[in-house]
Design goal:
The chain contains 1 helix and 15 strands. By secondary structure, the protein is mainly beta. The strands form 4 sheets. Strands 3, 4, 6, 7 and 8 form a 5-stranded antiparallel beta sheet that branches. A 5-stranded antiparallel beta sheet has the order 13-10-9-14-15, covered by helices on one side.
Length: 182
Amino acid sequence: MITATLIGGGSPQMVQIVVDVTPVGVPWTLTGAVNGRSWTVPGGEGVGDGSQLTLGDNRAPGNQPIVYTFTAGASSQASAPITVPFASDFVLQSLNGSRALALELALGSLDTSLASNQAQFRVAGRSRSAIRYDVTGDVEGRFGVFVTQDQSAEFRALLATGEPLLYRLGTELADMDPVGVI
């Protein structure tokens, strides 16, 4: 059996996922899913040892029903849907979730593009340039957020660490993953 519950007093809360028993010697994965998009829960891969598994997910998107699935070998179990309430449509946080800011996303600021990863070279004696193609890049872009006066010191402190940060959406956007590392 797999259960998912909200824990902690922070905002947003973390999801605790508990799997009663992991089958001995069987490789397993624990994933979360929202609207057809899925992710591996931090620590969500291993080999069963017969004990209970308890993991926390501080990387789930908000305000949308999340289903967690535990897969071991050919069998899988799914949790009941759970929703992490967000006070805003955008959260910026440290990777471990110890620091988080609920911000407002400036929706008109989304500027995304898909890199083609090609280079063009002029070659003497040829009328056309030679083009080198590589694997297509991922979506890249920028977005803006509104920061209140009360949040400005914490916002600067989060950015000043120089560490990767996690963004989590509390709304669905077609051109932006619901959770990502920046």
